[in-house]
Design brief:
The protein is α/β, with parallel strands linked by helices. It folds into 2 domains: 207 residues, Rossmann fold (3-Layer(aba) Sandwich); 304 residues, Aldolase class I (TIM Barrel, Alpha-Beta Barrel), CATH 3.20.20. 26% of the residues lie in helices and 24% in strands. It is built from 15 helices and 27 strands. The structure holds ligand 1PR. The site of ligand 1PR has 31 residues, from strand 13, strand 19 and helix 9. This is Imidazole glycerol phosphate synthase hisHF. Pathway: Amino-acid biosynthesis; L-histidine biosynthesis; L-histidine from 5-phospho-alpha-D-ribose 1-diphosphate: step 5/9.
Length: 547
Amino acid sequence: MPTVHLLDYVAGNIRSLVNAIEKLGYEVDWIRSPEDVPKAEKLILPGVGHFGHCLTQLSQANYLPAIRKHIDEGKPFMGICVGLQALFEGSEEDPEVPGLGLIPSSLTRFDDQDKSVPHIGWNDANTGGKVMYDLRPDSKYYYVHTYKSPYSKGELEAKGWTVATGTYGKETFIGAIAKGNIYATQFHPEKSGVAGLRTIRAFLTGSGAQNLGADLPSGGMAASREPKDGLTRRVIACLDVRTNDQGDLVVTKGDQYDVREKGADRNVRNLGKPVEMAKKYYESGADEVTFLNITSFRDCPLADLPMLEVLRQTSLTVFVPLTIGGGIRDTVDTDGTKVSALDIATMYFKSGADKVSIGSDAVLAAEEYYSLGKKLFGNTAIEQISRAYGRQAVVVSVDPKRVYVPKLDATRHAIIKTDFPGPKGEAFCWYACTIKGGRETRDMDVVELVQAVEAMGAGEILLNCIDKDGTNSGFDLELIRQVKGAVKIPVIASSGAGNPAHFEEVFEKTTTDAALGAGMFHRGEYTVKQVKDYLQEKGLLVRQFEG
Ligand code: 1PR
């Protein structure tokens, strides 16, 4: 088997990259010290998290001269995400830390005045009609980043670079860049489905470096580079997973969080096997797959958590982002050892997860945040994981419940006027946060929670709604609008999806960044593809699965 060398210097989901490379028929060899770098023929530098953190680690371990030498010798080099950013002179994210300086430009933060930041989702890598590592104009690629290299037409091209761009809001940024033996992508090719595997293959076989920058055959690719927002509407499939009464790990689905059958025996609903269902949703075009381990208590050692195996198996065949939630908090293992939330997250990332989702622990941390006068001490699970893996890797899953009140000043909580009055005709409501899968309601409203977790470093909100869960009656648009108005980070609308029109409604009537469905997919009422076809028919931009 031909070999490619991967530089192992940061934490993060490297497993997916290894899986992608192995799927393409290559073997991965690890570079674990600068002395190993010269043995690499083809070298890949992956990277997640902070620019400064990654570059400092590379610099302290003395990797930078070895990488420079590899590149100067004309050997193939590929950088991914922060691995691309490392090629620049520096980044606004950590101004005091220099990059390799091979590309004469620096990275700046996305403007969050008119859009959510980080930029998360599937966007273009538009080569402007040039040949570049098999990137295609009709394909979409998975991005997740807060800092970007702004694109200025012709500038880098004049210095011999070939550039592919994406546009988010009004900002056009560098999605991929190549010159000679160097290729780097801001997007994650290992998470970009078949389109991503194709561009990794072009690097591995060396075909990508050939004809680089040549004009594509006429009609082959759109020659224009009109700055047009290319971010697609993200559709996520969610699998609530738990052990049933027979001890099998199954996908289940509740009605307002009750996952037991209505009959006398009250069995846990069994809708299928997690790994198989995740693959089915990937092949139907799901942009992400989320697993929520809804009974996150455990009686087995942490290392044997069944969800770790689910992730390992899923990441072999599913090349889109995987999120895992449930039980991510400081805990004590079965042998009495203390285990931090960061340790648990690390195990999940190493098993193939791209993001972890935190529920109950986030509410408790937010309560403490307010009780301490909105001060942060860096010790919450959110802060620790976000510091180590980057904000984009931390999702907070919110489980709110409606509380109806008769008037606008009935409580100190963030009250809205609702079009759906309560049982006693109440025209107002607020959303109370719950923990432990909705079993315990706290004196905290959703606005308080999402603002606190944003301050702690969460990168995204997974916004469930207990009242809507499993009802097939559509998303709670009022809740989504309230939360979207409270934070800058992306929000995933969840709970209530019953048909494709509900997805159109939530995208048209709110500014949600993504929408998630569960029951309607599990019960086979609609496929992800049907949802996407419907959105496309209605003129909304979506990514379709490439076979
Ligand atoms: O608190 O950090 O251990 O995390 C536990 C996680 O498990 C939380 O994210 C919490 O939302 C989830 N959870 C706990 N109990 C349940 C339950 O159903 N009994 N599931 C549960 C939450 C909600 C959504 C669902 C949507 C869409 N599931 O993920 O998939 O509501 O459903 P629909 O489209 O069928 O309406 P921690």
